[in-house]
């Protein structure tokens, strides 16, 4: 009989196909096909380098198995298989394979904002992975509008028409854009991920279109491709992806949204959904939104028209002449009472989206604010995460 072994797996339902784990793995144990990103059990040495870089926690899945799942089996999954029943004795032996060093590494990865994400209880069930590398959706550019006045900071609002193709997408989900051409190895480029910034019923209500918020990155292959697209051009999409960074359908839920730059894309989708669907009945939203200056803050103009009763806005700037540099975490501290009050409310959901670097500062602010009301933040965060009320998506 085989000795049970611990196998590292990726949850295909939650994975957003950003391929960061595959690019991070030092021994090329992670690979993908048109459908899934998977871990090769023959190669994985449990180094854990892939765990903290995953923006969704989908990478953090483990099963104790008598025979490891093959790559082919994993490629065919649309959801993870349950833990096999190995019998008490064998399962214990297998669990011992999770030695103390690995447990410590996992604890380390989970001590930050990462960890396995859970969808809000009332969220609608998302469709995922309908379009793949092998069978992408072809969308047509309906509009490409510049959102920022800062010449050094070109952020675009891209509207894509899906025509007659079914493309159900919920607020908070992402799509992949496949840049044309091949990489240096003659392989087609991998899709780049963008959060959808429009609500589920379309950028224009009841039209089958979506919007993306894309910043031109110097030398960026995909961002320059998208930002240069003209009206009528076609592009290839994969997805939709993401099954946890979703809006609660419960109108009474309160949202605490913290974002930087183009990380505002899902917050725009949440706000538009609530404007259209719940209006005055909304439990309320408080948004801390950081940008270099008003000229580089995407959607600055339209945001001004959103009523305070629906969305309280704290716009925070880091590079305004004559003003001290301010980050979202600084403003959260300055609004400590409002944030603390939300932390005590079980109806509150937290969303953090944007630069990877902001996580540490935001965690620090939340730790201080939670402490001021006698709550250890790490425990509160873990409860919120397990209840589907704490969500992070940073790159
Ligand atoms: P950005 O303009 O470079 O930065 C936005 C603001 O964040 C600036 O004020 C910046 O300040 C500040 N900032 C820098 N470091 C920070 C830190 N450690 N803590 C708090 N604030 C900090 O932003 P961006 O270029 O738009 O980038 C946004 C990020 O969001 C990208 O990495 C993108 O991949 C990610 N994202 C995008 C989407 C999407 O759909 N487009 C979705 C999810 C995530 P200074 O630079 O002045 O110091």
TrEMBL record:
Cofactor(s) required, per the database record: FAD
Domain of life: Bacteria
Binding residue positions for NADP(+): 195, 215, 262, 318-319, 325, 354-355, 393
TM annotation in the entry: none
Keywords: FAD, Flavoprotein, Iron, Iron-sulfur, Metal-binding, NADP, Oxidoreductase
Entry-linked InterPro entries: 4Fe4S_Fe-S-bd, 4Fe4S_Fe_S_CS, Benzoyl_CoA_Oase_BoxA, FAD-bd_FR_type, Flavoprot_Pyr_Nucl_cyt_Rdtase, FNR, FNR_nucleotide-bd, OxRdtase_FAD/NAD-bd
Molecular function per GO: iron-sulfur cluster binding; metal ion binding; oxidoreductase activity
UniProt keyword Flavoprotein, yes or no: yes
Pfam families: Fer4_10, NAD_binding_1
EC annotation from Swiss-Prot or TrEMBL: 1.14.13.208
4Fe-4S ferredoxin-type domain boundaries: 6-35, 37-64
NCBIfam families: benzo_boxA
Protein name per the record: Benzoyl-CoA 2,3-epoxidase subunit BoxA
The organism of origin for this protein: Aquicoccus porphyridii
Upper classification of the organism: Bacteria, Pseudomonadati, Pseudomonadota, Alphaproteobacteria, Rhodobacterales
Gene: boxA
């Amino acid at each position: 009989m085989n000795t049970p072994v611990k196998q590292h797996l990726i949850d295909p339902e939650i994975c957003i196909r950003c391929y960061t784990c595959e690019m991070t793995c030092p021994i090329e144990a992670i690979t993908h096909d048109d459908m899934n990103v998977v871990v090769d059990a023959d190669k994985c040495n449990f180094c854990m380098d892939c765990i903290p870089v995953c923006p969704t926690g989908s990478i953090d899945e483990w099963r104790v198995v008598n025979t490891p799942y093959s790559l082919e089996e994993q490629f065919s999954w649309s959801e993870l298989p349950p833990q096999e029943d190995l019998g008490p004795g064998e399962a214990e032996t297998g669990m011992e394979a999770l030695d103390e060093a690995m447990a410590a590494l996992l604890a380390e990865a989970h001590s930050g904002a990462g960890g396995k994400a859970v969808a809000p209880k009332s969220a609608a069930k998302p469709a995922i992975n309908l379009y793949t590398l092998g069978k992408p959706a072809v969308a047509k550019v309906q509009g490409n509008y510049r959102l920022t006045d800062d010449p050094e900071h070109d952020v675009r609002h891209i509207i894509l028409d899906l025509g007659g193709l079914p493309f159900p997408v919920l607020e908070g989900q992402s799509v992949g854009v496949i840049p044309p051409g091949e990489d240096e190895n003659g392989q087609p480029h991998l899709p780049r991920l963008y959060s959808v910034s429009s609500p589920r019923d379309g950028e224009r209500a009841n039209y089958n279109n979506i919007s993306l918020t894309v910043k031109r990155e110097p030398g960026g292959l995909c961002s320059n491709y998208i930002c240069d697209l003209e009206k009528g051009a076609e592009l290839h999409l994969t997805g939709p992806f993401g099954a946890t960074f979703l809006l609660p359908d419960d109108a009474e839920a309160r949202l605490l949204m913290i974002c930087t730059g183009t990380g505002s894309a899902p917050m725009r989708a949440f706000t538009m959904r609530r404007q259209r669907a719940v209006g005055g009945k909304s439990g309320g939203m408080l948004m801390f939104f950081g940008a270099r200056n008003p000229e580089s803050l995407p959607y600055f103009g339209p945001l001004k028209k959103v009523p305070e009763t629906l969305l309280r806005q704290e716009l925070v700037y880091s590079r305004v002449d004559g003003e001290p540099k301010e980050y979202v975490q600084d403003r959260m501290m300055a609004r400590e009472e409002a944030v603390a009050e939300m932390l005590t409310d079980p109806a509150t959901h937290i969303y953090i989206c944007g630069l990877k670097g902001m996580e540490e500062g935001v965690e620090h602010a939340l730790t201080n604010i939670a402490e001021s009301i006698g709550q250890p933040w790490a425990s509160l965060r873990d409860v919120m995460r397990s209840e589907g009320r704490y969500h992070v998506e940073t790159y």
